[in-house]
């Protein structure tokens, strides 16, 4: 009898997160203070982030950082998550490849985002903070932080990218059910939002805009901190519970992946599944391919430039060394709202530079085609974001078939798509289309950056 799900017990939840920077030969370049262009210090981050998150952000020496007991206890609500062998998908593709997926969709909010939300809310509570702010694209991070804020008794304001606010009303309802205030971004409630709306009255928003608004509110509200769901090192750190569990589960399955895949927006779920396996490359020279799958309409890893850039549109954040399309880049209104972000974060950018990973870009229609096949063969309707990883896994499985060679593929199912059915409706009706960014657009946008490197 073939095993479908590989399940760990609660005692197997990792007791520490993995900090990949400690093991990297080439450390990421430092973030810069935008005023002075000098490297950012931990203390520079205190006005915006909790002290614990700031400390984790700057930690380049400790490979393992202990998970607080209160956070680990709340992880037990849904962790450990299953590792699943995708027999149905393998059969549908008639491939010799073995396909596994880590099912992060089983969390209370339906995605991996809760892994970091609980940690960040806990650290804010420990510091005596009463209010927190954040941004959200598709709404999964906002939903996760809404649950986490409630768990630790914090008040939360979420700036939700306007196009997603209207595309995904139920995600907004989830946040409000958990007690959060949700504002469509750009809004008239901040200086950054008012400026953007004055310049572009019909602008449908981006993660960069929403970050600007959330940062501004945090800086102008007493006893308030900003939290975010991707890009920064401490967020990647918290997500490594995914890959650390997957390592043990792949051992249970008696296999080791030839290729590890995650969809890519700012890097949270990708880092979560891949960093523990990149550790084996760094420490043991393991031969494993790591692939980030990004939208063709927002291709910072495949077509962006490595440069210092802001993490937000208004220029409130530190300057981050990363592959970027420019902080003014306005992504197309694709349904994978969580992937509509201009930059890639410093760790992933350095790993890409060092060729420890690779990146592919996927068109919107291919992702929905892959999602539909996955739903029909595995019984789970995936989030549009996760479908980029599925499409890449299918490409790899088809390549294995072409070569007539076995291949072990592991991807992260970062969330389910049950609140994204409007997008599926549009796909099934033939109303979705692909969006291509021209070389001219990319070049023009990048030319507007200050070239510090």
From TrEMBL:
Cofactor annotation: pyridoxal 5'-phosphate
Superkingdom to which the source organism belongs: Bacteria
Domain (Tryptophan synthase beta chain-like PALP) ranges: 78-415
Enzyme class: lyase
Quaternary organization: Tetramer of two alpha and two beta chains.
Function description: The beta subunit is responsible for the synthesis of L-tryptophan from indole and L-serine.
Protein family per UniProt: Belongs to the TrpB family.
Protein name: tryptophan synthase
Alphabetic keyword roster: Amino-acid biosynthesis, Aromatic amino acid biosynthesis, Lyase, Pyridoxal phosphate, Tryptophan biosynthesis
Functional pathway: Amino-acid biosynthesis; L-tryptophan biosynthesis; L-tryptophan from chorismate: step 5/5
Signal peptide, first to last residue: none
Keyword NADP: no
Bilayer-spanning residue ranges: none
EC number of this enzyme: 4.2.1.20
Keyword Lyase belongs to the record: yes
């Amino acid at each position: 009898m073939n095993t479908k799900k590989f399940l760990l017990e609660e005692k197997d939840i990792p007791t520490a997160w993995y900090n990949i920077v400690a093991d990297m030969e080439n450390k990421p370049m430092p973030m810069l203070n935008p005023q002075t262009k000098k490297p950012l210090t931990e203390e520079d981050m205190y006005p915006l982030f909790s002290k614990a998150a700031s400390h984790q952000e700057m930690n380049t020496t400790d490979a393992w950082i202990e998970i607080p007991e209160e956070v680990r206890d709340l992880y037990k609500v849904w962790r450990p998550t299953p590792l699943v062998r995708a027999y149905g998908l393998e059969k549908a593709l008639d491939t010799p490849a073995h396909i596994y997926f880590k099912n992060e969709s089983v969390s209370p909010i339906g995605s991996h985002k809760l892994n970091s939300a609980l940690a960040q809310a806990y650290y804010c509570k420990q510091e005596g903070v009463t209010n927190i702010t954040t941004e959200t694209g598709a709404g999964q991070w906002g939903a996760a932080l809404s649950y986490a804020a409630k768990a630790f008794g914090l008040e939360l304001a979420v700036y939700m990218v306007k196009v997603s606010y209207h595309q995904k009303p139920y995600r907004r309802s989830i946040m409000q059910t958990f007690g959060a205030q949700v504002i469509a971004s750009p809004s008239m409630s901040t200086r950054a939002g008012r400026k953007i709306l004055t310049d572009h009255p019909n602008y449908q928003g981006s993660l960069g805009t929403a970050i600007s608004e959330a940062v501004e509110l945090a800086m102008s509200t007493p006893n308030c901190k900003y939290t975010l769901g991707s890009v920064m090192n401490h967020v990647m750190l918290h997500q490594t519970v995914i890959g650390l569990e997957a390592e043990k589960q792949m051992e249970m399955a008696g296999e080791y992946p030839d290729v590890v895949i995650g969809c890519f927006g700012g890097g949270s779920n990708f880092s979560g599944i891949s960093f523990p396996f990149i550790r084996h490359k760094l420490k043991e020279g393991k031969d494993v391919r790591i692939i980030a799958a990004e939208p063709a309409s927002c291709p910072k890893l495949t077509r962006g430039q490595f440069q210092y850039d802001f993490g937000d549109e208004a220029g409130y954040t530190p300057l981050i060394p990363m592959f970027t399309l420019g902080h003014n880049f306005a992504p197309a209104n694709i349904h994978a709202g969580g992937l509509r972000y201009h930059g890639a974060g410093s760790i992933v950018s350095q790993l890409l530079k060092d060729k420890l990973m690779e990146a592919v870009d996927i068109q919107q229609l291919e992702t929905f085609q892959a999602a539909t096949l996955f739903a029909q063969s595995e019984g789970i309707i995936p989030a549009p974001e996760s479908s980029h990883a599925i499409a890449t896994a299918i490409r790899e499985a088809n390549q294995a078939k072409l070569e007539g060679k076995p291949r072990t593929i592991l991807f992260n199912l970062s969330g389910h798509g049950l609140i994204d059915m409007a997008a599926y409706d549009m796909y099934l009706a033939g109303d979705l289309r692909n969006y291509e960014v021209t070389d001219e657009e990319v070049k023009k946008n990048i030319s507007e950056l200050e070239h510090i490197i």
